[in-house]
Design brief:
mainly alpha, 4-stranded antiparallel sheet, 33 helices, 8 strands, Cation/H_exchanger_TM, sodium, cNMP-bd_dom_sf, ion transport
């Protein structure tokens, strides 16, 4: 086969793919449906041109399509790693990880259920072994979510629903391919047919792939900063990564290559933005989108071209088996969607999903290129019997065609029947109100433009009057006052604020005014705010917004690591992340308050704008309190962080000034490049985010604590050996009432509150808490809660008693403090008992 002919054939396919995209949009079809149909037509035409006796002119080109120069294994190795890796880059990974339990369960269980139901349904009629039927079930268990997700976005479905479908489909493919490999091994004798051994192999391959992908992905991310701002090098490195992971997993580690690529892509998506510049990350995304488009389109059209060959010799029995396959596949998907998903909802592992959306997910289970390629690989496996090859190839190919031609063409009509594409009265009212305001603004801008360009009033009036009439018409049909309650208007305002907040955070990310470290986690929180505002209104908005100031499980884990393993690096990073996130949120909230006043108030009215302003003001107060607490504990770091923010802002302004001057030809290319190079060097030498010192060195804490100021150096050194540092966050319980006294806590910095049944007392630097239970042997008599960030020194009960014996002065001081606190408790108790 001549190389120029092969190149011409593939170039022709790319031309066809490019032309089909706008045609699919015009016909209101999913591109995959049109590509499959055209691919099949190319396959038929190529076979006709190759074997017809009328002409030999096109034989060389036709032969490329009839017998492609690449087999299914090559297609999988070349295209599959790219498709899987790019899909992970487009996912909102942090948001998907919130639903990892339902996604993982749906993915794995959906594959197992589909494989089992399809296999056992076909076995009585198929005339092949049960393993062969199960193999077909695994092949057709892979779903293509692109069409469903795109339609969900068009109709404004909850973002979480789309993420569930995307995440489930990604792991669905991985689980199906793992199961496919195991069942194929059973058919060829390479794998033991024992069920328990197969289950063990499945989970070993699946979990092993996850672990390998996580390790390799984390290591790969560490190399990104070495390439600095070299976008081409970073993209090249990212393209090589999925191929290396795929080959190493399959050939060396003997784990699932598909799962490993997915896991490495997730890690790359999570940590990549923190290692390169925002512009470089956006560029990497754009390049990967183009690569994935080529890969997905080529793999699909190549597989579609082979459809006529795979369907050769289609019989009536095959038609019956296809009907059984369709019913079984639909039933299996219904079991998962209407059976398993409600169970997850009952177990609080998943948010409730509307029945109409479930129906769309059920009907949107289209199959795509992966199914066709897996079926093709069976036909190329010469160790399999011919009847098994034909059984799998014919039914898998027919099923793909059915899902594309039936599901793909009827999905949007189904959505119309379910009325998922129509605006609610609330949305319609908002549309009219927004249109009225927007058209009024446009009319004013048209008048200004006409005046600026000296266009006659008569001509300007023709355009201006048209906008005025349309604005008046939109205002007339708007039914806000009659049909829409304030609560619904507030909901609209909250949604608008949440969407605007995401835009503002992204703008700061792209402008580089905040470091890359916190942006992905911050965007995840902002996305959750938007989702909760849509589904649960003001309550959901406020609850999600409070997550910005709350301390999550990861933070608690970092505290545990510092407390028991004496490793403070994770805690130091998370405290610094929190500091920067609070600072960014304060800036964004100020911008949101202005947005509410300038844009939402004219749209929704003074009363709603006032409610939204109050909501934003409460959020801002919480953020300011959080920042003040951190500033009180780490004033130098707060100054350094704000200085770094202003420096980044200045660099952004400087870059914009150079770009404007270059655009207006005030400076030439050579000077512009020199200025940009100087700015880039300054950014590089400026370093990253300031380093935060938690101040948890035991010797320094002992030296800072006035409690130990009168001790000799040798005595302090002994205390240093006995003490261990501990970091406490605002609101954290240092001591709980009723617990057994196992330690005393010396406060080196910060403040806490002792809460008894009779009152509360503040304690701070130089105080000790928890000593009363150690002296009396009684359970804790009060709660002790950190009021701010506290650095504590913890002394175990055994060491405390030993220290008290060795140092009479310390014992006397501790006993004096205990007596004072007991006296305060008694005074409070007496005050409460005295009748007024």
């Amino acid at each position: 086969m001549h190389t120029p002919v092969v190149i011409a054939a593939f170039a022709s396919l790319l031309v066809v793919i490019a032309l089909l995209q706008p045609l699919a949009r015009r016909l209101d079809l999913a591109p995959s449906v049109l590509i499959a149909a055209v691919g099949a037509m190319i396959g038929v035409l190529a076979a006709y041109l190759l074997y017809t006796p009328r002409t030999d002119a096109f034989n060389a080109l036709a032969y490329v399509f009839v017998d492609p120069p690449i087999d299914s294994e090559t297609v999988l190795y070349v295209f599959l790693p790219l498709l899987l890796f790019q899909t992970t880059l487009t996912l909102d990974v942090r948001r998907i990880l919130e639903d990892w339990v339902p996604i993982l369960l749906l993915a794995v269980i959906a594959v197992l259920v589909a494989t089992a139901i399809i296999g056992f349904a076909l076995f009585p009629l198929a005339g092949v072994s049960l393993v062969a039927c199960l193999l077909l079930g695994a092949i057709v268990a892979t779903t293509d979510p692109v069409a469903v997700v795109s339609i969900f976005r068009d109709i404004g479905a909850p973002g979480r629903l789309g993420r569930l479908v995307e995440g489930e489909s990604l792991l669905n493919d991985a689980a199906a391919i793992v199961l496919f490999v195991i069942l194929l091994g059973m058919l060829t004798g390479a794998q033991t047919p024992e069920p328990m051994a197969a289950v063990a192999t499945f989970f070993r391959s699946f979990i092993g792939g996850i672990l390998l992908g996580l390790v390799v992905g984390r290591g790969a991310v560490a190399f990104l900063p070495m390439m600095r701002e070299n976008k081409l090098a970073q993209v090249t490195f990212s393209v090589a990564l999925p191929y290396l992971v795929y080959v190493v997993s399959e050939q060396l580690a003997d784990v699932s290559a598909v799962v490993a690529v997915v896991a490495s892509g997730i890690v790359f998506n999570l940590y990549g933005p923190a290692r390169i510049t925002p512009d470089a990350w956006s560029y990497l995304h754009d390049v990967w989108e183009q690569i994935a488009f080529w890969a997905s389109s080529l793999i699909f059209v190549l597989a579609s071209i082979l459809i006529p060959e795979l369907l050769t010799g289609f019989r009536m029995l095959d038609a019956l088996l296809l009907v059984v396959l369709i019913v079984a596949a639909l039933g299996a998907r219904a079991v998962v969607i209407f059976g398993i998903m409600p169970l997850l909802e009952m177990m609080k592992l998943s948010e409730p999903v509307n029945t109409r959306y479930k129906t769309v997910i059920l009907w949107g289970g289209m199959r795509g290129a992966v199914t066709l390629i897996l079926a093709l690989s069976i036909t190329e496996h010469r160790t399999l019997p011919d009847d098994v090859q034909r059984f799998v190839a014919v039914l898998a190919t027919s099923f793909v065609l059915f899902t594309l031609l039936i599901y793909g063409t009827t999905l949007k009509p189904l959505i119309k029947i379910l009325k998922l594409n129509t605006l609610s009265p609330l949305d319609q009212a908002l549309r009219h109100q927004f249109q009225a305001l927007a058209l009024s603004d446009v009319r004013d801008e048209v008048d200004e433009a006409a005046h600026a360009y000296s266009i006659s009033d008569a001509i300007a009036r023709k355009v201006s009057d048209d906008y005025a009439a349309r604005s008046a018409e939109a205002a007339e049909i708007n039914a806000f006052a009659e049909d829409i309650m304030d609560r619904e208007r507030v909901l609209l305002g909250l949604i608008a604020l949440a969407d605007r907040e995401r835009v503002l955070v992204l703008r700061h990310f792209r402008e580089g005014t905040v470091s890359n470290r916190t942006i992905t986690s911050h965007l995840a929180i902002v996305g959750r705010i938007a989702d909760q505002a849509r589904t649960k209104g003001r309550t959901g908005y406020n609850r999600s917004a409070r997550r910005i100031v709350s301390f999550g499980r990861l933070f608690r884990l970092a505290q545990w690591t510092q407390r028991w393993l004496k490793i403070d690096l994770p805690l130091r990073i998370l405290v610094a992340d929190r500091f920067e996130r609070l600072l960014l949120t304060r800036i964004v909230l100020n911008e949101l308050i202005e947005f509410n006043s300038n844009r939402i108030k004219p749209l929704l009215g003074d009363r709603v704008a006032s409610i939204l302003h109050e909501t934003l003001d409460i959020r801002r107060e919480d953020i300011v309190q959080g920042l003040d607490a951190m500033r009180l504990q780490y004033p130098d770091y707060a100054d350094a962080l704000e200085l770094d923010f202003l420096r980044r802002t200045g660099e952004r302004f400087e870059e914009a000034a150079y770009s404007d001057a270059y655009t207006q030809t005030l400076i030439g290319t050579e000077l512009y490049n020199d200025l940009k190079h100087e700015l880039s060097q300054r950014r590089t030498t400026g370093g990253g985010r300031p380093r935060l010192d938690l101040g948890l060195k035991t010797r320094d804490l002992v030296a800072q604590n006035p409690f130990f100021s009168g001790l000799k150096d040798a005595e302090r050194e002994e205390i240093v050996r006995l003490m261990r540092p501990r970091f406490a966050t605002p609101g954290e319980y240092i001591i709980r009432k009723g617990e057994k006294g196992d330690a005393a806590y010396f406060i080196s910095s910060g403040a806490a509150e002792v809460r008894t049944a009779f009152g509360t007392h503040a304690v701070g630097r130089g105080d000790v808490v928890g000593e009363i239970a150690l002296l009396t042997g009684q359970p804790r008599s009060a709660d002790v809660v950190a009021l701010g960030y506290c650095n504590l020194l913890v002394l175990s009960a055994t060491d405390f008693r030993a220290l008290m014996k060795r140092s009479a002065d310390l014992r006397a001081h501790v006993e004096h403090l205990a007596q004072v606190r007991l006296g305060m408790n008694q005074a409070d108790a007496a005050a409460l008992a005295t009748p007024e």
